[in-house]
Every structure is written in C-alpha cells, then in structure tokens.
Amino acid sequence: MSRSRSALLADGLGKRYGSKWALHDCTLEIPRGSVTALVGPNGAGKTTLLQLAVGLSKPSAGAVRVLGRDPRDEASSVLPQIGFVAQDHPLYRSFSVGEVLKVGRRLNSSWNDELALERIRRLDVPLEQKVGTLSGGQQAQVALTLALAKEPELLLLDEPVASLDPLARREFLESVMEVVADREMTVVLSSHIVADLERVCDHLVILSQSRTQLIGPIDEIVTTHRLLTGPRTDPAIVARVHQVIRASHTERQTTLLVQANGHVYDSCWELHEVDLEEIVLAYLGHRREQVAA
Amino acid sequence: MTWVAVRLQRTETLITAVILLLIAGLLIPTGLSMAHAFSHDRLSSCVGLDPSGSCANAVGEFESRFESLFNLTAWFTLVPGIVGVMLAAPFVLELENGTFRLAWTQSITRRRWIATKLAVPIATGLLLSGVLILLFTWWRGPFVHLNGRMDASTYDSEGTVVIGYTLFALGLALVLGVVLRRAVIAITLAFIGYFVSRIFVDTWLRQRLVTPVSATWKSSHAQPANIFHADIISVTGPGLVQSQAGPVGSGSVHVRAVAPPFPLPSSSLTHAVYQPPSHFWPLQLTETGLFLGIALVLIAFAAWWTHERVA
Questions:
Q1: What is the CA radius of gyration of chain A?
Q2: CB spacing of A92 vs B109 below 8 angstroms
Q3: Would you call B72 an interface residue with chain A, using a CB distance cutoff of 8 Å?
Q4: Residues of A with CB below 8 A from B105's CB?
C-alpha cells in the first residue's frame, strides 16, 4: 500500500454547476497529521471541496487525491479510511441512537463498536432515544461518533459547528481535540466562524471567491503577518518587499496589513501583531473600521 | 445495507400493509358469504347457459345482492398505484433529507447502495401485488364463473397486470423523485401520471394490444354463445347506430344487454368486434410486459441519475 505524504491533494481542482464555478483552479496540499481549518465565507467552495474529497461529486477540472488515491474511482478502498460529517450533520431522524450505530456497524468494514458506545455513554444519551428528539449539539456529536468509529485516517467535517449554540460548539470542538490527541488522524474542518478554530487547528486554508487565498501552518501565518501603522504613504512602496493584504488610510496615517517577507526594517512603521481572526477577515476582504489616529 | 433499507422503509411497509389488511378485511368475509351463496343457490349449474327460468332468477338475485360491493371493488384498481408510489418514498426522502451523504460516506459504494435501495421496494411491491392478485382472484371466483373475467374491474385485478401497474407506479415516482428531490410532490405527480396512463391504456390502448375477433349474426337471433362472456369493442348494425364503445373492460356492453331502441327488421344484422375470453392471457401478458418494460426503463433511469447526477 502506497503511503502518500499528503492526506489531501488538490491539483487545479474545479467544480462547475452550469456556468458557475463553485470551486475554481484549487491547488492545495494538506499534510498528514495536521488539523486544518478550511475557512471562507458562505459560497466560497468549502463544501464543494470537501464533497469532491470524499467522492460525493465528480471534478469538472483537475484532480483530487485522498490518502494518495482517487476518491471516486477507488471509492471502496478510500471510503473506509475517511470519516465524513456533512453539513447539517444529516442523520436518520426516525432512528434511535442505537439504530444509527447499527447503521455504522452494517455499512462499514472496520467499525469500533466500543469506541462508539463509549462516546454515546459520555454524551449521556440513551440508546433508545430517537435521533430527531436530540438537541442540535447532541445530533452533531452522534454524527461525529459515526465518523470516528470507522477509525478513519482522515476526518472531514463540513461546517460542523455552524448550526450549534456557543456551548455546544465548544463541546464539539473539544471532542475533536480529544480525538486528535488520542490517535494519529488528519482532520480538515470547514467553517465560516473563525473564533475557536485557533485552539483546535494547526493549519489554515482560506478559500474565497472559489479560490485558495492562503494556505499554511497557523503559527507561521500569525508570525509573518503584521499590522503596520505610519505616516500616510503609498502602499506600493511597501508592496515592493512585502505582500500588502489590506490598506487603509486616514488624513495623516496609513495602516497596512502585510505578510512580511522577512523583517520590516523601515523605522517609520510601527509594527503590531495581529490575531488570526483579523488576518482571515483581511483576506476575505471584509471592511473593518479604520483605525483612528 | 439490506437491514438499513428495510428499516428505512418501515413506515411505508406498514402503511401499505394496513391498506392490504383493510382490503382483506372487506374481501375475506364478503368473499366467504359470496362463495357460500354461490354454492347454496347451486349457481354453478347455471354457468354458461343463457339464463332462463329459475337460473335467471337465482343469478339475478345473486348479482343484485353483491353488485354494489362488486362495483366498489372497481376502485381497488388504484391500489397498485398507491402502493407503488408509496414504496418510492424512502429512496426519494433520502435524497431530499441529504442522508444519502451519510450513507455514501460509510464504506459501501453508491452502486451497492442504489441496488439495495431499489431491490427492497421492488421486492415489497412484487410481494404485495402477488397477495392482491391472489385475494382478488379468490374473491371474484363466483362472479368470474358467471360472467367471465373480461370486464374491467376483474381484468385489472387478476392475472399479472397488477404486478406491472405496481412497478410502473414505483418507477414513475422514483424518476420524478430523483429529479425533483421532493418526495411529496414526486409522489403526488406520479400518482396522477399513473392514473392518466391507466385511463389511456384502459380506454384506448388495451383493445389494440391483441387483434380482436368479430362476429355477425341476425339481429333477431340471440347472440352466439361463444361471445356470451366476451367484452364487446363495438356492436353495429341497422338501428344500432351507436358504436358500443368499449374497451375490454368497460363491462357495460354485454351482448345480452344490448337492446335495440326499436324493433328491427328481421333481416338486419348485428356486428360485433370483441375480445373473447380466450384473449385473456395474451392481453394480460402483453399489457404486463408493456408496464414492466416501462417500469424497468424508469427504474434504470432513476438509478443512473442517482449514480451520476446526485452529489
């Protein structure tokens, strides 16, 4: 069995619905063992990318490899190694929790029943309870259990916390962190909410307007991005050396968010650290209030 | 996978089973009393005779006693349609609710999922239509002895056509369902489609499936004995201007019921084009084949569409 270094590899990957590209020319590599946040606004192509990765849809252009294989042509060898929770975590609502686990047992060649039962026990949900009567947070946890009991090498979560309240969101992400700590597993989770992700993820992919805008380890991203404030200047001067992500001006002052290429030597600039959320927002082109002088 | 598909079809299986039980609850007691009346009145000795005298009285009494019930059962021709469209629901709901994404990302291929998800309702449909056929055939036994089985409500619920109807309704609902991804709309439209196709086949196509035979006789004479049970497509002759319409099946035009509106000259002839009882099986098999063939195409299309177009 060939072991590829990357868990997920997209090369010029695109998906078109009619004349509209839901994902266009996406090239990225997600290393094994990483926990990657796939961030972008709604409609950026996050769901499309994950559905292509899990073989639910067929690429219109380019190729995607999951654990070194084609997720569609080699579905029967790829599927057992992927855990996938689709957006809104679809479950058979008329089933009891126990029956949902039975579905997992029946439809998977590798299935860790003890792990599944243990997780359900800790959720404090009776096995006889109907899935439809569970809270959103509990349903998400049951869906995650179904994905985890396959003991997958790659766990793909599509907007797992979008529909959850803050407490359930925190609990869900904590269970993901626990799993990652326990076993070697690559995790990719998409989200349009940046908060909380930093605690869970070590890699970041920013998708916007159907394209990859930024990809890399989060600590590297945070250390290379800086907020520069100084006298009013044409950002083009800075852009010769560093990559200017966002520029804003007041009468006398210019504020730039840059991805620094090495040190910023020019002493007229005051350097500030920026947090991940601000970096992400800058890439997504969100207007934030200009910093007053 | 089979367990999952059967479990997901539980509600629909229960509903169709209840429909079947209700029908059985009506047919079994009445069928028993009908069979009892039939043997008690020694009607079997009247079979095949032009009814006269005590036989005519007995037959007339028997028929008037059970006629309303018999007419009621004409409605049961809708049952295969209801059963068929209903059994398509679990498949369509899975697409509508997005749970196919759950199923397709376990370890089985979507090809296997589709095959199982189709096999379960098909098998259920075959089983239910088989039971319906047996139930109706037994229940109508006495009527069939007297009148043959070429009238519409008998023809529609015996033989093999019920199997074709059920799977046709299933296929139609599946195709609409996978394309529209809305179970309720698909089921409603499929049922309307089923109804319209059945009307078309009953009133126009069926009589053309097998070449009818014709007979001519003197209008003043009784009709030939061999078309006693037959269904008339048309009867014409001097004085009989109306084309006695009739698909196999309309049942309304038994020859003996055709009375000219005024005395005919003794030389006038009556002409009948009809499907004799011997055409029952050729008609049944052709019609069943037609519905099954269309059902097969529809189901194959639904499978293809799901495999290629759903994500």
A1: 21
A2: no
A3: no
A4: 54-56, 79, 82, 84, 86
Structure tokens at A45: 């192509």
Host H or E run for residue A279: helix A276-283
Query: Which two tokens mark A98?
Result: 């126990």
What pLDDT digit, counting tens, does each position of A83-100 carry?
999 988 999 999 999 999
pTM: 0.86
Are B106 and A108 in contact by the 8 Å Cβ rule? The answer is yes
Biggest alpha carbon–alpha carbon distance for chain B: 81
Q: Which one of B104, B105, B111 makes the best mutation probe of the A interface by having the most chain A beta carbons within 10 Å? A: B105
Give the integer Cα–Cα distance in Å for A112 and A123: 17
Question: Residue B272's closest CA among B218, B220, B200?
Answer: B218
Q: Please state, in angstroms and rounded to a whole number, the distance separating the CA atoms of residues A60 and A48.
A: 11
Residues 7 through 66 of chain B touching chain A, CB cutoff 8 Å: 7-8, 11
Rounded CA gap, B197 and A254, in Å?
Answer: 74
d(CA B229, CA B252): 12
CA B31 distance to own-chain centroid = 19
Helix (H) or strand (E) segment spanning residue A258? strand A253-259
- State whether ipTM is beyond 0.95: no
Phi, psi of B265 (to 5 degrees): -60, 145
Read off the pLDDT of residues B288-309 as tens digits, 9 standing for 90 and up.
999 999 999 999 999 999 999 8
